[in-house]
Write a structure and sequence with these properties.
It contains 19 helices and 16 strands. By secondary structure, the protein is α+β, with helices and mostly antiparallel strands. It folds into two domains: 272 residues, Bira Bifunctional Protein, Domain 2 (BirA Bifunctional Protein, domain 2), CATH 3.30.930.10; 94 residues, Rossmann fold, CATH 3.40.50.
Length: 458
């Protein structure tokens, strides 16, 4: 018996209507990215595994889709390799390539390989699919699009300021309400140093990140399992309770300065203060929240980190990013700082569908349907259709003249085409044709010039 047709979990088919809506998101992003001087690039779906491994932390490495080597990929595998039962180690011997996990690491590789061709600071945008061997769930897919903007080759915090402006422009254009969570990796490092947990930084920030889910008392119980003095834990608890009770970003920064009070932490707070003050001047501070618990999972961030969430519906982050000071250094180009962010087009799409925020006319790929029900007039119909298309009117000529006109009108209605052009023998002799409005039922006898004008006006 044949297997029922299916697609891999965590992937999706998209109908013409859905593609039109997704393209609307992509087009909006491209337009705004271009306004800020970003240029497009593309990179291969596959990268060398050596490029990808070790860039996303241990958990990220587990989520890489690996690609089997071509040909007889097991010929050099020994019996000991098979019998050892170490699937991760074995996969590295039979797979040299992997599907990209994100667009940032491939971008860093691109910069290093093309460093003699690009001018720094280099501003690029990139809209392409990425893959993660994750457990599929609501808002989390194994194949999804990322829409990235990055600025590489500058330490200036004005770059971060522009990213905050881009976020505001994008979500205003898409008519979505949002909140940007803002933090700095240096602040987290300062917080860890204040608690004498530098050597346990990842575990420390991972536990802090649970606060919203399990509450501060449970977080303190987990932190007590780390090598930290009880009096420091009590001070941390008091600080976090005070911090979380505040709504003003400026007040949060001041209380954080008084608690952290070490060089790296104060440097991060200084950078954050710069961004908050500029956001205030640009009238976008109301959409920005200093969140000292925000850590971002990717290990290459070194400064500013940000996440954007919808303030209208429950969903994970719809945009995220940050500053990475030496990502290109792992590929042989040290001391090149960059900052960037990625918009999650799939989650944005899901939110806009839920909230019904797409423009109404997006899913109308055709303006007029040309009926075809008489013999031997194909040439005239093709000529009429081409005249419409030359005038930027999207026209669909029905091919089979043996199908009755009534059925053709039904097909046009099912395709949601607003106009139908009916060409009979009398119309051909007059040089005027019947134009039927499929929404109102009205019909007009018009010349082709008038038909073009009427459709364009509608």
């Amino acid at each position: 018996m044949n297997q029922p047709l299916s697609i891999p979990k965590g992937t999706r088919d998209f109908t013409p209507e859905q593609v039109s809506k997704r393209q609307y998101i992509f087009d909006t992003l491209k337009r705004i990215f271009s306004l800020y001087g970003f240029a497009p690039i593309e990179t291969p779906a596959m990268e060398q595994l050596s490029t990808l491994l070790g860039k996303y932390g241990e958990e990220g490495d587990k989520l890489l889709f690996k690609v089997l080597n071509s040909g007889d990929f097991i010929k050099d595998i020994s019996n000991n390799d098979w019998n050892e039962g170490n699937s991760h180690k074995l996969s590295l011997k039979i797979c040299e390539k992997g599907l990209r996990y994100d667009l940032t690491v491939p971008f860093a590789r691109y910069v290093v390989m093309h460093r003699n061709e690009i001018v720094f600071p280099f501003k690029r945008y990139q809209i392409q699919p990425v893959w993660r061997a994750d457990r599929p769930q609501k808002g989390r897919y194994r194949e999804f699009y990322q829409c990235d903007v990055d600025i590489i080759g500058t330490n200036s915090l004005i770059a971060e300021t522009e990213l905050l402006l881009i976020i505001n422009n994008v979500f205003d254009a898409l008519q979505l309400k949002y909140i940007t969570l803002l933090n700095n990796r240096k602040i987290l490092q300062g917080l860890a140093e204040r608690c004498s947990l530098n050597e346990h930084f990842v575990a420390f920030t991972t536990i802090l990140d649970k606060l919203d889910k399990i509450g501060i008392d449970a977080v303190m119980i987990e932190l007590a399992l780390l090598p930290v003095e009880q009096n420091i834990l009590n001070e941390l608890k008091n600080f976090l309770q005070q911090f979380l009770s505040l709504s003003s970003n400026s007040q949060k920064i001041q209380i954080a300065k008084s608690f952290i009070n070490n060089e790296i932490g104060l440097k991060g707070l200084e950078e954050l203060d710069f961004l908050v003050n500029h956001a205030k001047q640009l009238n976008i501070e109301h959409n920005i929240k200093f969140d000292i618990l925000l850590a971002r999972g990717l290990s290459y961030y070194t400064g500013t980190i940000l996440e954007v969430k919808s303030s209208e519906t429950a969903m994970g982050s719809i945009c995220g990013g940050g500053r990475y000071d030496n990502l290109t250094g792992i590929f042989g180009l040290p001391d090149v700082s960059g900052v960037g962010m990625s918009f999650g087009a799939d989650r944005i799409y899901d939110i806009m569908e839920t909230l019904n925020r797409f423009p109404e006319n997006l899913t109308q790929p055709t303006d007029v349907f040309i009926a075809n029900f008489l013999p031997n007039i194909e040439n005239q119909l093709i000529e009429i259709t081409q005249q419409l298309r030359k005038n930027q009117i999207r026209a669909d000529l029905f091919y089979d003249n043996t199908v009755k006109l009534k059925k053709q009108l039904t097909i046009a209605h099912q395709k949601k085409i607003p106009w139908v052009l009916i060409v009979g023998e009398d119309e051909l002799q007059q040089g005027k044709y019947q134009l039927k409005n499929m929404n109102t039922g009205e019909q007009f006898l018009l010349s082709l010039t008038d038909i073009i004008e009427k459709i364009k006006k509608s």
